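Usage

Read records sequentially. Each one opens with the input sequence:
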Amino acid sequence: MGYSPDGTKYFNGYYGKSPGLGSVGAYQVAGTPYLTSSQVGAGAEVQLTFPALPRSITIINKDADSDPLLVRFASQATDAGQHYITLDTQNSSVTLNVRTRSIFLEATGAAVDYELFAELTGIATNLVPDMNIANWPGISD
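and closes with the structure output:
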């Protein structure tokens, strides 16, 4: 087991080489589990950055009052359009099979509780572009 540059024990390959974006096996095997749960403050947004590239991400709205939770790939401040998925009831969820460095969660009204589960590959996140930029088609245009 190698160590990643940030000191975590996510697999970074033998002899210090990490698998790349085209490493099919990294997406076919079960990923390293990554779990977190918290609350997005009223009218706030949080960015969750992954320590390695995920093969899938599941977000669950756990808010007892069913306040909506918006899921984005770019910050609300960067997004000129309406590029988000709304989880609008308690226990509503979405599973995304995507390659991304991070994800943004936004509570448009009251504070919202959430849970997130991701399956991480051994692929470094710096191999994919940062989608939190203006005018990215389908993300922030």
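Summary fields computed downstream for this record:
- Strands lie at 32-40, 45-49, 54-61, 69-72, 85-87, 93-96, 102-107, 112-120.
- DSSP finds one helix and eight strands in the chain.
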